[in-house]
Amino acid sequence: MSESKLVSLVKRDDIPSIRTIEVNGVEHWLGHVKDFTKHEGLTEFLPKDNRISMAWVRLEAGEQLDEHIHPVESMILICEGGASTLGDVETDMGAGDALLVPPGRPHGFIGAEPTGFWGLSLQFDSRGLYEDIADPWATFHEDENYELKHADTIVDKLFQKNEIFKDRFDKHRLFALVNKGLLTDSETRNRFLDCFQVWSNHFQKMVFNRYLTSADGAHLELAWDHLIEEFGHNMDLAASRDSSARIFDPVLEATSSWFCSILNRLSDMQKLVLIHLVVEASATVFYKHVAPVMSQTQHARHFHEHDDGDHEHVKMGYDFVRRQTPSLHEAEGLLEIQEQGWSMLMSVMSRIADLVVYGSERQSNSNAAQATKQPAAELES
Fold this sequence. Notes:
Oligomer: single chain
Protein name: Cupin type-2 domain-containing protein
Largest sheet: 10 strands, antiparallel
CATH superfamily of the largest domain: Heme oxygenase-like
Strand content: 15-25%
Number of helices: 11
InterPro entries: Cupin_2, Haem_Oase-like_multi-hlx, RmlC-like_jellyroll, RmlC_Cupin_sf
CATH topology of the largest domain: Heme Oxygenase, Chain A
CATH class of the largest domain: Mainly Alpha
Domain Cupin type-2: 56-111
Distance between the termini: 28 Å
Number of domains: 2
Number of strands: 10
Pfam families: Cupin_2
């Protein structure tokens, strides 16, 4: 029989505080942030696959946390005292009130008189916002807007916005879960690969359709070069697997197939932005997180090749845009497809995360149910 653990008490004051954070070389005041992962007892108590990140947060009366954004959903629950909010919603909060913050939406706080507030900051299917001090998941508005205000050309704006989108994608909950060990279990890893195969198949269709629908000579040549380098990678991935399950999920199919179908309505330059600045740039982030997990599996070759090759495919697109210099009348359409593409990719990855996490839970529950039935079956025999 395993040794039972005793009830233990963790005092709030026992959790160390983060008081300031540096973002892009600028130090920002946080008040108090007490991330639960910074306390050994809490870290040992919480399950390793815990998908809720928690931290105590505190502002004294009159202290201000400037307006900022996060790349993930966040909820701030006031437990003691009160605060005034900044950003999208400007109002007063008291004990028991919750502020629900979608990704990318501006918000901030001022501690109310006379005592400020204590609250809980909660993130879901993610790591904590300040869990890694070297990589805080916060962008303060002056940091994000400065470069865009000083973008001289449409090319500058495209490239600068792409870095912002890429940074948000890097914080996707799928990658946070992968970095917490989501794919260490073989059954879960196989389910992930089943879902990823769907995206890989549609990626191939997108690359083919881009070549078939490209009209301009230079664009057609680039589309051909890209097609030749990507040809058959989805089949290589499938061939690297001993067994696989064919996944049909309406949401994953719809979001993945959008990339191929939308090409029929885009100009050649819009296709280039979608495929090279968005999809290939996202791949560099994806393989950065996933390739290390796959390095000791039979699928290592596929992930290693993409980890190296996709950076070159991004460069192909960036170099082409610099040489072609899109006109001002093209700007709106290019920026629109750039934003739409990143948004759809976030949806693809979110659906894969849902199918892997919750699908694995259903499998575990099914296995547990079968295990409980087994002794009864043995008795009957």
